[in-house]
Amino acid sequence: MRAIDKTLVDEVWRELTAYAPARVASEAQAFLDLQPHAAAFSQSLTRQFDPTVQKAALGLAFLLFKILEASLGRPFPELAEPRLLDAYAGTQAWLRQWEGAPPVEVLQALGQAEHASLAAYILEIFYAGGAVPGEYDETVRASLYCLLKTLTDALDLGHVED
After folding, report:
1. I need a surface site. Which of 24, 77, 86, 161 has the fewest CB within 10 A?
2. Can you tell me whether residue 85 is helix, strand or coil?
3. Is 1 inside a domain boundary?
4. Is 117 part of any domain?
5. Residue 107: half-sphere exposure toward Cβ, Cα within 13 Å
6. From the centroid of its chain, how far is CA 5?
């Protein structure tokens, strides 16, 4: 087993972005088969957004599980729906502290955390090193963060090592 650190996340990201389209389709289907609850959650959390955002959310969930696979040396077992629902309840409770705050404030808080979370680091990579607010839709980015936070909480993953 390999520790999940920034180097591993970077390696998996580079590997995935170099996949040929046929390999992406094949591995994405394997992800959908192995992680139906994570895939369904990703779709339900982003259904109010356009298809590009929905595809990005599913891709980020796929990336997370590829990182786990690289860490474990094998596919991660199916994430049970009750764990996912419990983690989502925790994410909703976390969001209540931000009730009424603009999404940009929620996103700024991510960068002020004492330890970088795996979810925040994945978004930093996805947004090419942490795009500046105004260069993207803050509501979309905050929603993608909530997706990743819920998944990492359900998997008992939190911090990423430097």
Report:
1. 77
2. helix
3. no
4. yes
5. 21
6. 15
Residue 66, amino acid: K
46: tokens are 């982003």
Question: Which of 99, 102, 101, 94 lies closest to 133, judged by CA?
Answer: 102
Domain assignment of residue 126, yes or no: yes
21-71 pLDDT, tens digit per residue, is 999 999 999 999 999 999 999 999 999 999 999 999 999 999 999 999 999
Nearest alpha carbon to residue 126 among 71, 32, 22, 53:
53
State the residue range of the domain holding 131: 6-154
Task: Indicate the length of the chain as a whole number.
Answer: 162
Query: Residue 44's Cα: distance from chain center in Å?
Result: 14
pTM of the model: 0.86
Q: Contact, 117 vs 88, CB < 8 A?
A: no
| 162 lies in some domain | no
